[in-house]
Fold this protein.
Amino acid sequence: MDKIEHLGIAVHDLEISNKLFEKLLGTSPFKTEEVVSEKVKTSFFKLGPNKIELLQATATDSVIAKYLKNNGEGVHHVAFATNNLEADLNRLGEQGFKVLEGFPKKGADNKNVAFLHPRETNGILVELCEDIKGTNKREDNC
């Protein structure tokens, strides 16, 4: 793993939260997108080399909707950038970490992603993400 790629924050209302973070950070989101397979709408803010992802559920049965119901708004996950997702998942699996869903999938911001179960990471949902090759310039060195 190379660095913290972003912090994911679950929110009830993306529009309201975007306005809040625009005021807080002094910048607008650089990207907003819907990830249909995850039933979530996201927006990304960039602050220096760091990113913050806001996540709003688009369906009541989504992971984010369940998180918000149980925990309210707040930090949902920490994402780490990797240049070799498969190798990192193999290494972590050998060390006893459980990958949720058992395999990587396409996520937001042109990434392949995988999540580690919070039981093995002190209650923190950890995401590993890798740029999808050939479609995203690595302007942010992630």
About this structure: The two ends are 10 Å apart (CA to CA).
